[in-house]
Write a structure and sequence with these properties.
2 copies of one chain form a homodimer. Chain A is an alpha/beta fold and 442 residues long. Chain A has 15 helices and 13 strands. Chain A is globular. At the A-B interface, α3, α4, β6 and β8 of A face α3, α4, β6 and β8 of B.
Chain lengths: 442, 442
Amino acid sequence: MAAQRHLHLGAFMRPTTIHTGAWRYPGAFPDANFNFAHLKRLAQTLEHGRFDAFFMADHLALLNMPMEALKRSHTVTSFDPLTLLPALAAVTERIGLIATASTTFNEPYHIARKFASLDYLSGGRAGWNIVTTSNPDAALNFGLEEHVEHGERYRRGREFFDVVTGLWDSWADDAFLRDQEQGLFFDPARLHVLDHRGEHFKVRGPLNVARPVQGWPVIVQAGASEAGRQLAAETAEVIFAATPTLADGQRFYRDVKGRLAALGRAPEHLKILPGAFVVVGETPEEARAKRAKLDSLVYYESGIAALSIALGLDASGFDPDGPLPEIPPSNASQSGRERAIALARREGLTVRQLAQRLGGYAGLAMVGTPAMIAGQMEEWLHGEACDGFNVMFSHLPGGLEDFVGQVVPELQRRGLFRRDYEGLTLREHLGLPRPANRFFPG
Amino acid sequence: MAAQRHLHLGAFMRPTTIHTGAWRYPGAFPDANFNFAHLKRLAQTLEHGRFDAFFMADHLALLNMPMEALKRSHTVTSFDPLTLLPALAAVTERIGLIATASTTFNEPYHIARKFASLDYLSGGRAGWNIVTTSNPDAALNFGLEEHVEHGERYRRGREFFDVVTGLWDSWADDAFLRDQEQGLFFDPARLHVLDHRGEHFKVRGPLNVARPVQGWPVIVQAGASEAGRQLAAETAEVIFAATPTLADGQRFYRDVKGRLAALGRAPEHLKILPGAFVVVGETPEEARAKRAKLDSLVYYESGIAALSIALGLDASGFDPDGPLPEIPPSNASQSGRERAIALARREGLTVRQLAQRLGGYAGLAMVGTPAMIAGQMEEWLHGEACDGFNVMFSHLPGGLEDFVGQVVPELQRRGLFRRDYEGLTLREHLGLPRPANRFFPG
């Protein structure tokens, strides 16, 4: 049973790579965020690698860290995802295109229409990563002095989802007759006026785009809190998880999949893809050296800030070139603190190396040869810790090209990953059913 | 002096053609609104014809006419313009891409970011058609039971413009250093935090996209009211006018251009492009027959409704196949009424023909051979009634292909239109200067 499962792979492009040193890596595109020619090449390479989806995370603000760190970060700017992905749709054929859009700072009518349009433009390859934005700097760009509190954001998010999917169901799939002879463009009996009146939104409808190719674009979420997990269990078809260890992955997988039966959903209709930072080398040593090189490009003060948060104390006075000193007890999250200490001991890292590791990327990492990385992915898949991964590349284009050129063929050899796309739509890549229209079930 | 002027041509794609019978014309694409392959082909043909811009108007609602008319209309649905145009940017090289976006139902931060993103994706070909949406059906899709009144919409529109352009000026053109060696991504001294606090908006900024390729995307407007003209004179670089006769065109041109000196603007920095519906034939008779065929495809009741509005009385009792009866006085706009009566007398139209003409397209039309249309365009240009036209095609793809294949070469032969693009950006096509950055004038 488990042996028949296959991996699903998303490419996490936020806006290009997540590692804060990546733009300085030798051969990297430092302007990748801004340069459509680069992004087009990367998307086409991912499609050549048969990835399920190109995923673009997002930020609605810039001022989210101290200026000394900010001015060294390549993530400060990025294209609007819902503007970039239609352009990528026009230069790709099969790869899914998942855009992040906030339910806190948008109107449901716009979001329903933009994703429906993207789904048509791409021939059924759109996905919507629903975020209930929690960035207070974003609020300041939308006229809100105080950020909306967590529970309220989730209630608004849930109603937003109901309105958007209701608008997508405005038209039966056969509503548009386009009968030139009779002069009848659509059948009014196959049109539903939503007329939503809820706590947060009043939206009459109908949507002025036909029902999307996929019925609904694929629904994606990344919330890890209790409210986030429950919203995901109720509504999501893909979860981007952030589970740093196999045991964490298994716990999360069990928890979320376990919620589905009570909701009348089949476990295979929600795919869980943990983020995995990959560094590929011809030998284990080469991969580790690449990562060390990457980490060495992280701004030291940002690393120390990350280390201080993990340890729950000010680490700025530590000797950068010495080992991590004994750490007194603190109020910090025990797991983050223990992981940092264990990491330093296991790899014999100096304070500087540990700080730069945490400031670069501190989550699940797969660093090694293609066979090692494929083996680790297989272990997670067969250990029921995931249905695939949202892959974060070490640097661009090199890290992405290494993964597509070396790890993907290894996964294919092991029968873990498709050799070609079997369907046309993102839903088909992911093995997800096309949702019925709630107003026109027939 | 006047002889050296050249026409600028926009293609009015709303969502495809404006004529309500167009989708039924023999050979028309009845699904053009929805079919990216068609839209790509049309945009590429326009680029081959050296058009300045592909312009997409918009509606934020569907229910804006009685269902009996609505169900016969191909304009009920269309892609979101800011989702379609990035896709067209990826499959074209030079043609400008102008999207309509409402200042009434959007947030300035989103609009600034989306147009800045489109400007990068297209290499400097973006334009923003600013509309202060007046459609009450749209308001119902955005939680507003009552529509915002005219003056208030314009005040909001003006402040929206100030915020968006302020966000576009967040970064000096040289702010991004991307110095991989030093690890410095941008220079904080070349970043401006807008911190706008006005009557309608509070927006901190900065924008998380670099200053657009064109400085600002080209600013377009279409308002014809006093408030609309003044807003356009203050802010617009292109006006899409709706002036049905040469005399109307001259009056509008004189009025708007006359407002510029007091605002410190040069007349050539605001281009006025009246909408012109074109029907091309090999002979005048063939062109007129094409138009008659098109008009005959208009739903009769819609035509009668349009005729009743023009005349200021209920025309539904008239004999469809008889001539227009004597019309008693009414409160209708005198000019619309007189134009309808004069049109019926001049062309000897029956009530049905007159109604279908008005229900199809009632504004400025150029119906004839390529030489006749080119001559009429030349007359408007040299008569200082325009700087070019926003061309509306009779049907698609035929009407567009006829114009590009036959009228454009005639305009080129007369020295009225470019034979090739001379610049790369929409601003360069239009001969508009790149705006200085208000915060970094150097």
